[in-house]
Structures are given as C-alpha cells and as structure tokens.
Amino acid sequence: MKPGHIHVSSACRPINELLSQIGDKWTSLIITRLSSGPMRFNVLKRNVEGISQKMLTSTLKALERDGFVERTVFPTVPPGVEYALTPFGRELSAPLMALTRFALENSGRVDEARAAYDRKQVETATELQRASS
C-alpha cells in the first residue's frame, strides 16, 4: 500500500456501521415518529406498528448510545420514561423524512416495475420451455 493511502475496507467500516444502523427499518420508523416531539415508551410502541417491546428497547438503546435519542426518566411511581431526538437526531430526521416521502410517493411505481419484471420472467421461462420442447 502506498504511503498516505487508507485501506478501503477500514475506511468504509465506520460508514457501513452507521448506514446499517440508520438504514434499519425500526430506526427509521422510531426517528420519524420522534421527529414530531418527545414520546413516552408505550406511546412510541403504539406509534411504531409491529415492533416488539424487546426490539423497541434495544433500538432505543442503540440510538441513545449513538447520540440520536435522549432518554429522560421522571421521578414518578412507576417511573415515567420519555424519549426525544437530540439535535443530532433532528439532523438525521430530515433526510429520513425525505426518504419516507419518496417511498410513499413512489411505492406505486415500484409495484408497477416489479409486476412488469415478474411478467417478463414468466414470458422468458415460457419461451424457453417452448424452445426446448
């Protein structure tokens, strides 16, 4: 390796780790839900359809560790816990919201492209069967 050059895999590792975290289904849903304001754990769980309590807990811990979410415990009985985006998390919410809008606006186009691809695969398989008969 030439002096001054960084090995690509070691340079990409932090990028891959971060993209893996923020590209996760649950992370993107949690970040977009929290972009509207702080939420208590159970409210957040109701707003993230399909997430288990265990997955919500582990994802929130990972987001807190990475600095995207802050956890506030209120001295009540039982203790109340609220989650909110940090300034860093709000920075992340903007591109995630843009991706969410893109997905909602273009889901029909993706469905059409998939259907066309599937039709073409069936046609190709049918043609190959005819040709081999």
Q: Alpha-carbon distance between the termini?
A: 56 Å
**Treating each run of at least 4 consecutive H or I residues as one helix, how many helices?**
5
Q: What is the CATH superfamily label? A: Winged helix-like DNA-binding domain superfamily/Winged helix DNA-binding domain
Mean pLDDT: 89
* Percent range of helical residues: 55-70%
Determine Rg (CA atoms, Å): 22 Å
**What's the count of strands?**
3
CATH architecture: Orthogonal Bundle
| Helix vs. strand class | mainly alpha
CATH topology assignment: Arc Repressor Mutant, subunit A
Spatial sequence of strands, sheet with the most strands: 1-3-2
How many structural domains in the coordinates? 1
Plain-language structure description:
With about 130 residues, the protein is mainly alpha-helical. It has a single domain (about 10-130), classed as Winged helix-like DNA-binding domain superfamily/Winged helix DNA-binding domain (Arc Repressor Mutant, subunit A). The chain has helices spanning about 10-20, 25-35, 40-45, 55-65, 85-130; strands at about 40, 70-75, 80-85. A hairpin with a 5-residue loop joins strand 2 (about 70-75) and strand 3. The longest helix is centred in the last third of the chain and has 46 residues, at about 85-130. The protein is elongated. The N and C termini lie far apart (about 55 Å).
